[in-house]
Write a structure and sequence with these properties.
Layout: H1 2-7, H2 11-65, H3 72-81, H4 86-97, H5 104-112, H6 122-149, H7 152-159, H8 162-172, H9 180-199, H10 204-230, H11 236-254, H12 256-263, H13 277-296, H14 303-324, H15 331-347, H16 353-395
Helix pairs in contact: 2-13, 2-14, 3-6, 3-13, 4-11, 6-10, 6-11, 7-10, 7-14, 8-9, 8-10, 9-15
């Protein structure tokens, strides 16, 4: 009997051991999940800081570049050529991270499946890649041209309206789910644009700059919606290849435009020695970093945190403009900035946010109902105990 009890524990002890083991497994799983989420949040903070610094830094550096080099289209063309580095950088990451390493040719052919069964043919290049190359160039050119007209704070905050334009176009073209909160956010964005125009008194100089930024945000929204409509969703390698293809289109078909602008003296500079190559390369590197974090940062953190980096660039540009330019932060401009920022944050809410809020409210109601009966039970159970204790003393 002693030997049997030593070898096989009693049923109650076995249940306790099983419960302890199960609890240990649950605790381990919870610990792993919490550590994973903590790492993701830490990476998210790093990505947010990278997005904010690269976006605000590129905007400020572009403003500084135009003081010596007044050629926004040439700067757009020069920076777009750096997109060619997307696929080589992605392949380096694939070599270091992936267990099954492929040759560059094999990886290229696998990513070309994104364009169709025949891969990247000449027809596919002109029908699927060329329109996006035009939209990419227009988005960046209108943004840079607006920096010449108005301050960087207004440019950065107005460009945040592109998320509202994406929702409106997705709702109309892609038949996405209707959300009242996002309609309110779109109204906030439009109201902010009007108030931003009113902040400078509807001067022609500021109106043109605001119109250029709104046009840039519209081109960016059209780019995103058409990409989802025509090409769908892309993996990391496919997105890297697509952006490199846009650089090839830029070199082959857009190079003639800066040349024409130079000889017609629309964008003219006296000699190549005058060109601030450090500013041009710095702007291109910052813009490339911003696009890399925007497209591939989702692999290590949450998409919402990445979008927050764009919003945080607004106060950074505001602080820089306060010390470097003669910007006037009157009440109308501040209200416009707050309204557009609030609209941007409302657009970051997930589609099922209302369901989560209802579940949270119902849980709170259930907890309140459970706490009230428990408190009443303690009071009611305490009275009989006192009566039971007092009766024997009276009989004695």
């Amino acid at each position: 009997g002693d030997e049997h009890s030593r070898e096989s524990p009693a049923p109650a002890e076995a249940q306790m051991q099983a419960g302890a083991e199960g609890g240990g497994r649950v605790n381990r799983c919870c610990w792993k999940c919490s550590v994973t989420q903590l790492k993701k949040i830490c990476w998210g903070v790093a990505v947010v800081l990278g997005v904010c610094s690269s976006w605000s830094g590129s905007t400020q550096l572009a403003k500084l570049t135009f003081k010596k080099f007044d050629a926004p289209f040439t700067l757009t063309w020069f920076a777009t050529n750096w997109n060619f580095l997307f696929f080589p950088l992605y392949y380096l990451g694939h070599v270091f991270k992936s267990a099954e390493k492929q040759s560059p040719k094999q990886r290229y052919r696998e990513c070309c499946g994104f364009f169709g069964d025949n891969g990247l043919t000449l027809k596919v290049f002109f029908t699927k890649a060329a329109p996006f190359g035009v939209l990419w160039t227009l988005t960046n050119y209108l943004y840079l041209h607006a920096i010449k007209k108005i301050n960087t704070t207004d440019v950065s905050v107005l460009f945040c309206c592109n998320k509202a334009f994406v929702f409106l176009l997705s709702w109309i073209v892609l038949r996405d789910r209707f959300m009242g909160v996002r309609i309110v956010a779109a109204i906030f964005a439009i109201a902010g644009i009007v108030m931003m125009t009113y902040a400078d008194g509807f001067h022609s100089h500021s109106v043109i700059g605001i119109a250029l930024v709104v046009g840039s945000a519209s081109m960016s929204a059209l780019y995103k919606v058409l990409f989802k409509l025509l090409l769908g969703s892309a993996k990391f390698g496919e997105a890297a290849l697509f952006l490199s293809v846009l650089a090839v289109f830029n070199v082959l078909f857009v190079t003639c435009i800066p040349v024409i602008l130079y000889f017609t003296k629309v964008e003219y500079w006296s000699s190549f020695d005058v060109v601030p190559w450090g500013n041009l390369c710095g702007f291109s590197i910052l813009l490339l970093t911003f696009n890399i974090l925007l497209n591939f940062g989702i692999a290590i953190t949450y998409p919402t945190l990445i979008s927050l980096g764009i919003v945080l660039s607004v106060p950074v540009n505001a602080v820089v403009d306060h010390y470097t330019s003669e910007i006037v932060f009157n009440s109308v401009r501040v209200i416009a900035i707050v309204i557009i920022g609030l609209g941007f944050l409302l657009l970051l809410l997930p589609e099922e946010w209302d369901v989560w809020v209802i579940k949270l409210l119902t849980r709170l109601k259930v907890r309140k109902k459970e706490e009230i009966p428990e408190g009443n039970g303690d009071i009611a159970s305490g009275l009989p105990n006192k009566s039971r204790r007092t009766r024997p003393s009276m009989s004695s």
